[in-house]
């Protein structure tokens, strides 16, 4: 490496360490941010406590040590992590006007934020596989979804895949020079949000971001659709109406979780792509709905719709006072 290249590298690293971004709360409501923070704080408390409760119940109750509940505990752990990822900066902006964030801290947050999003998509796909095997091949369910295979799915198909997909993002952002406005659109860092502030060609970032979404979230969505098409075919072949409804009922909670994840994601993508003329408040609200809705409502759906989870939660808080 030449001395000039070395000097440029040192200067770029120094600029990266000194560069500061400014986070944004709700546009136009800065004077009322303390009041706006109250519902946000409440939503975070519900999301954190709900997912912690699901994790506690599944780990504590031996009767719930089954594939379906293992995958549910993975989903809750990811939702919990996703909420904790945005909580410090969001409440910091609303409560303390702590709007400054360094480039390195911003990159770390976007790495975990996008990583947990891809993990959630992977877990939802694994849960669809669980329902597919349970309905289409019930006699081999216990032999196919062993503890070792569940661990393999969690580590390889969910964790390692997500980390490997997101790993290039910090390097792609770090190489960009930032000389325009350094005000971000949200109270947390997103790759596409930071990328638009760069004063250099960002085509590589855009192409990689698109490919990452296609080969994770879009591909997962297609496989999910195929899985439920096959499940529906199998269910419609069941002669008894009661058995058909019972089989579909076991999929209802998972279908809700899939909709809670993909509908806000699709809505945010469409608004980001076609709604540039819309008010910044709409963009901010959609981004917050996309990040907060799944962690908030997934525990509610599974607690209400899954009898075993509901009974264990009641028993955990009421002890033996409540009967089975």
From TrEMBL:
GO terms for biological process, alphabetical: cellular response to lipid
Transmembrane parts of this sequence? 32-59, 71-95, 107-129, 150-173, 207-231, 252-275, 281-302
Q: Which Pfam families match?
A: 7tm_4
GO MF annotation, one: olfactory receptor activity
Residue stretches making up the G-protein coupled receptors family 1 profile domain: 50-302
UniProt keyword annotations, A-Z:
Cell membrane, G-protein coupled receptor, Membrane, Olfaction, Receptor, Sensory transduction, Transducer, Transmembrane, Transmembrane helix
Which PANTHER family does the record match to this protein? OLFACTORY RECEPTOR 51H1 (PTHR26450:SF53), OLFACTORY RECEPTOR 56B1-RELATED (PTHR26450)
User: In its UniProt entry, what is this protein called?
Assistant: Olfactory receptor
């Amino acid at each position: 490496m030449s001395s000039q290249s070395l000097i440029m590298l040192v200067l770029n690293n120094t600029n990266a360490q000194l560069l500061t971004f400014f986070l944004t709360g709700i546009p136009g409501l800065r004077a009322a941010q303390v009041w706006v923070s109250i519902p946000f704080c409440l939503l975070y408390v519900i999301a954190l406590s709900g997912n912690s409760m699901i994790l506690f119940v599944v780990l504590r109750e031996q009767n719930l040590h089954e594939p379906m509940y293992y995958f549910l505990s993975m989903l809750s752990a990811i939702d919990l992590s996703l909420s904790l990822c945005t909580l410090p900066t969001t409440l910091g902006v609303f409560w303390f006007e702590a709007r400054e964030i360094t480039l390195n801290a911003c990159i770390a947050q976007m790495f975990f934020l996008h990583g947990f999003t891809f993990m959630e998509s992977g877990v939802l796909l694994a849960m669809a596989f669980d329902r597919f095997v349970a309905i289409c091949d019930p006699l081999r369910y216990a032999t196919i979804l062993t503890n070792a295979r569940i661990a393999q799915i969690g580590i390889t198909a969910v964790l390692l895949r997500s980390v490997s997909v997101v790993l290039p993002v910090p390097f792609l952002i770090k190489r960009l020079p930032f000389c325009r406005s350094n005000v971000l659109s949200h109270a947390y860092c997103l790759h596409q949000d930071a990328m638009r502030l760069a004063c250099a060609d960002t085509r590589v970032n855009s192409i990689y971001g698109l490919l990452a979404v296609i080969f994770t979230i879009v591909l997962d969505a297609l496989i999910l659709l195929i899985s439920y098409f096959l499940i529906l075919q199998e269910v419609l072949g069941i002669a008894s109406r009661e058995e058909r409804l019972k089989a579909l009922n076991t999929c209802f909670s998972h279908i809700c979780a899939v909709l809670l994840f993909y509908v806000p994601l699709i809505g945010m993508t469409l608004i980001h792509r076609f709604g540039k003329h819309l008010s910044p408040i709409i963009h901010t609200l959609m981004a917050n709905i996309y990040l907060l809705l799944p962690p908030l409502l997934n525990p509610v759906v599974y607690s209400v719709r899954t009898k075993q989870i509901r009974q264990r939660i009641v028993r955990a808080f009421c002890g033996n006072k409540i009967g089975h």
